[in-house]
From TrEMBL:
The keyword Hydrolase applies. The lineage of its organism: Bacteria, Bacillati, Bacillota, Clostridia, Eubacteriales. SMART domains: Alpha_L_fucos. InterPro entries: FUC_metazoa-typ, GH, Glyco_hydro_29, Glyco_hydro_29_N, Glyco_hydro_b. Alpha-L-fucosidase is responsible for hydrolyzing the alpha-1,6-linked fucose joined to the reducing-end N-acetylglucosamine of the carbohydrate moieties of glycoproteins. Keywords: Glycosidase, Hydrolase, Signal. This is alpha-L-fucosidase. It is an enzyme of class 3 (hydrolase). Residues 17-361 form the Glycoside hydrolase family 29 N-terminal domain. Signal peptide: none annotated. GO terms for biological process: fucose metabolic process; glycoside catabolic process.
Length: 456
């Protein structure tokens, strides 16, 4: 178990602790997952109205970092926390258009969606029957909108575009009276865990388990095909005396409504962490297990006013680095309070989509290829071809005319992806030496040399 959580950012499970699933359907679906390479992650809930970090300001123990920039009534944090909780009463994203989001994602080159059905604050973005703290609840002004069941309409829209679905779900629920119960040891100064000892109050804990199972049953039964269950709040686990009995609900769901369901019980390890999820980081070395880095396009998972978004070169280099090491990139965009996606984020998404239309064949459906990442080079392979990326650090860098690709491959032809131009080459003791004709124009994100084991 990777138990470290630093300012809301989770550590990730070591590859040597990974347990491959025994279910052949899950193993098959993991191969599908490894083909996708690029997912769109979205953290969205009432908290976006304040532009603060999602959920964490409710935890007193995490207040020192999560409440930065909040100047609230002479430091009255209890008043602030109630204000946060009451954000459901003003959340009214009337410009939310799920079909438009799905089309933007598809055009941006994304292959699947990861959406926060519920974060740690307990607000449900679907029409659950378990609580009224939800998007369709009586206190939420959006409840009568035709898209009020946001999860339903978003999942349907993305499926209609042929994209996969991952349901993000927090195992912790800080709104639940069964998790943050009043009148207990930690009720007056809350941290991310339960306010009570689950061993001393088993009946209370069992109520929370039943509540959680029913929410998962709703999402995985009433909301169509779900490819991935993305479970957050890794501290909710048997090792921490918070056993939500995942086996019971996951195996029930796999037997009935979602055969082959991939589960990412992140940071916990064990049979339900079917893939590993580095957060805001990329491993230094390749990992030969299924993995996915979740990284923000801006600086925050939730919407932040005036945020800065990564430009194409940075995002593409990030994707190339991750794919070359065997992973997927879950690129996070936090939608605005009105239901639109930030304009700067849209620009980056559009640019990425245009880039992938040219270079996507070297990304999607590939597998890692030694030496993976070295110097300016990154490598992938697929179907008798090796794709060698030469990364340019900035637009002012001089275009290469000659270089040696450091790869051991019985190459019969080399072409430059994008132009399809044949490139002269010769094998050397250090790899494949290529000579590129003189080119004019702006320096691209990268050059991609397609090395084929067949004559071009």
């Amino acid at each position: 178990m990777a138990d470290k959580v630093n300012q809301g950012v989770h550590n990730y499970t070591d590859k040597y602790d990974y347990i491959a699933p025994e279910d052949p359907l899950v193993r098959e679906r993991l191969e599908w997952f490894k083909d996708q390479k690029l997912g769109l992650m979205m953290h969205w809930g009432p908290y976006c109205q304040l532009g603060v970090v999602e959920s964490w300001a409710l935890s007193d123990k995490d207040g020192s970092w999560s409440r930065n920039g909040i100047d609230w009534v002479d430091g009255d944090m209890e008043l602030f926390k109630q204000q946060y909780i009451d954000l459901n009463k003003t959340f009214n994203p009337v410009r939310f258009m799920p079909d438009q989001w799905a089309k933007i994602a598809k055009e941006g080159g994304f292959k699947y969606l990861i959406f926060t059905t519920k974060h740690h604050d307990g607000f449900c973005m679907w029409d659950t029957k378990t609580t009224d703290y939800k998007i369709t609840g009586k206190d939420c002004p959006y409840r009568n909108n035709k898209y009020a069941d946001i999860v339903k309409h978003l999942f349907n829209a993305f499926r209609n575009e042929g994209l996969g679905i991952a349901a993000y779900f927090s195992k912790a629920d800080w709104h639940s009276e069964y998790y943050w119960a009043e009148g207990h040891e930690h009720s007056h100064f809350k941290n991310r865990n339960t306010t009570y000892n689950t061993k001393e109050y088993p009946e209370l804990w069992n109520k929370f388990v039943e509540y959680t199972h029913e929410q998962l049953r709703e999402l995985l039964t009433d909301y169509g095909k779900v490819d991935i269950l993305w479970l957050d709040a890794g501290w909710v686990c048997p090792q921490n005396n918070q056993d939500i009995r995942l086996y019971d609900i996951i195996e029930e769901i796999r037997r009935t409504t979602q055969p082959g369901l991939i589960v990412a019980d992140r940071t916990v390890g064990g049979v339900y962490e079917n893939y590993v999820t580095p957060e805001q980081t990329v491993p230094d070395e390749p990992m030969d297990i299924p993995w996915e880095s979740c990284i923000t396009l801006g600086t925050s998972f939730s919407f932040a006013y005036g945020d800065d978004y990564k430009p194409l070169r940075q995002v593409a280099h990030l994707l190339i680095d991750i794919v070359a090491k065997g992973g997927n990139l879950a690129l996070n965009v936090g939608p605005q309070p009105d239901g639109r996606l930030p304009r700067q984020a849209l620009r980056s998404i559009h640019d990425l989509g245009q880039w992938l239309k040219v270079y996507g064949d070297a990304i999607y459906g590939t597998r890692p290829c030694a030496p993976y990442r070295t110097g300016n080079f990154a490598f992938t392979k697929k179907g008798g071809k090796v794709y060698a990326f030469y990364l340019y650090s900035d637009e002012n860098q001089e275009l290469i005319t000659e270089t040696t690709i450091p790869v051991d491959f019985d190459c019969k032809s080399v072409t430059l992806m994008g132009s399809g131009e044949r490139i002269s080459f010769k094998r050397t003791s250090e790899g494949i030496k290529v000579t590129v004709p003189h080119r004019e124009g702006k320096t691209p994100v990268c050059d991609v040399f397609v090395l084929s084991d067949e004559e071009g």
